[in-house]
């Protein structure tokens, strides 16, 4: 059974940093594009960042580009989202997902999801 478990969320002041981790079961990160989405209260879930299954291709939404970094540790089957210079608008529940594509990703392109971790940015 495939499992994705996020951790690392919390409360941080604007301008601060947080590191989210997604622990995966098996070797799913070798076969799926590992992706972070987020969903703010009352809004739709949106794409944040993706790392390709093979190689080092990464992509980011315009809203986080230059501030967030996605990486993988294949030996540990873990995906990490380093979030720096956080803004109030980054407040959301962050989800890790295993998706079937790297470009133009929507939630429909993802087969497995974690339970989410809350990130709250305060002023």
Topology:
Layout: E1 4-7, E2 10-13, E3 18-24, E4 33-39, E5 46-51, E6 58-60, E7 68-73, E8 78-83, E9 92-99, E10 110-113, E11 117-122
Parallel strand pairs: 2-11
Antiparallel strand pairs: 1-3, 3-8, 4-5, 4-9, 5-6, 7-8, 9-10, 9-11
List keywords for this structure.
4-stranded antiparallel β-sheet, 123 residues, mainly beta, single chain, 7-stranded mixed β-sheet, 0% helix, globular
What does it look like?
- This protein is mainly beta.
- The protein is 0% helix and 50% strand.
- The chain has no helices and eleven strands.
- The chain has strands at residues 4-7, 10-13, 18-24, 33-39, 46-51, 58-60, 68-73, 78-83, 92-99, 110-113, 117-122.
- The strands form two sheets. Strands 2, 4, 5, 6, 9, 10 and 11 form a seven-stranded mixed beta sheet that branches. Strands 1-3-8-7 form a four-stranded antiparallel beta sheet, with no helix packed on it.
- Strand 7 (68-73) and strand 8 form a beta hairpin.
- The radius of gyration is 13 Å and the shape is globular.
Short description:
The protein has 123 residues and is mostly beta strands. 0% of the residues lie in helices and 50% in strands.
Order of helices and strands: EEEEEEEEEEE
- How many beta strands in the DSSP annotation? 11
Report the sheet-strand fraction: over 45%
Q: Describe the biggest sheet?
A: 7 strands, mixed
Apparent shape: globular
Q: For the record, give the distance between the C-alpha atoms at the N and C termini, rounded to a whole number.
A: 40 Å
Low-confidence stretches: none
Structural class: mainly beta
How much helix, percentage-wise, in residues? under 10%
Helix count, per DSSP? 0
Supply Rg: 13 Å
Mean of residue pLDDT?
96
């Amino acid at each position: 059974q495939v499992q994705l478990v996020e951790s690392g969320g919390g409360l941080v002041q604007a301008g601060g940093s947080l590191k989210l981790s997604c622990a995966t079961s098996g070797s799913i990160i070798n076969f799926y594009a590992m992706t972070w989405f987020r969903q703010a209260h009352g809004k739709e879930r949106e794409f944040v960042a993706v790392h390709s299954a093979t190689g080092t291709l990464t992509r980011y939404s315009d809203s986080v580009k230059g501030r967030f970094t996605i990486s993988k540790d294949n030996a540990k089957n873990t995906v990490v989202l380093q979030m720096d210079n956080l803004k109030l608008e980054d407040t959301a529940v962050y989800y890790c997902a295993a998706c079937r594509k790297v470009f133009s990703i929507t939630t429909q392109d993802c087969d497995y999801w974690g339970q989410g971790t809350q990130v709250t940015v305060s002023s």
